Amino acid sequence: ILSLHDAFPYFARSYQKFEEVPVWGTSFPRLTCSVIHPWNIKFWVDLHIMLRLVKSKIGPIDLIQLSPLREPALCAQWLSKHLNTRWIARIACSGADGDFHFMSGNWLTKWRLSDLVDSCAAAVVLDDETRKEALNGGFSKDKVVLISNRLVVEKLPSMEDVQKIPEGGVILYVGRIAIQKRLES
Fold this sequence. Notes:
Blueprint: E1 2-5, E2 13-18, E3 21-27, H1 39-58, E4 63-67, H2 72-83, E5 86-90, H3 99-104, H4 107-119, E6 122-125, H5 128-136, E7 144-146, H6 159-162
Parallel strand pairs: 1-3, 1-4, 4-5, 5-6, 6-7
Antiparallel strand pairs: 2-3
């Protein structure tokens, strides 16, 4: 599996095994929001570099996993075509912070949206709202898979328990640092 995501520094690679399946991870090239920006040439050059890297260092790929959908869908679709394999995407969230919102703001993903959706083998969504957005964005029902990642807690801590955190205490947050997570509150 080749996993494309934005968690690594540019073109860093990681390797791990998940239930005996080798998973390679790498960051994806970035496309600008402007049609005529010179960095767009770099985007296509970087895609070719990534293709050579995969062919020379990793070998045959059975599946490309993309997270989030957004403009990296162009990378996944292009690599999928050149590596002759399927690609799937995890749709990060919905609304103003959602993937479809960001895709509509990028000139190339907006223009190629229906082709990107058609070529994607499956879209993993995390909640009903994102599922609705995927269906409205053109995904067919049979391609959308709901895999909730929310925690189910038997008993939530009370405000009294939360307030017992000592002054200067440390709280560990594990997740994406983004405005919609409201970490400042």
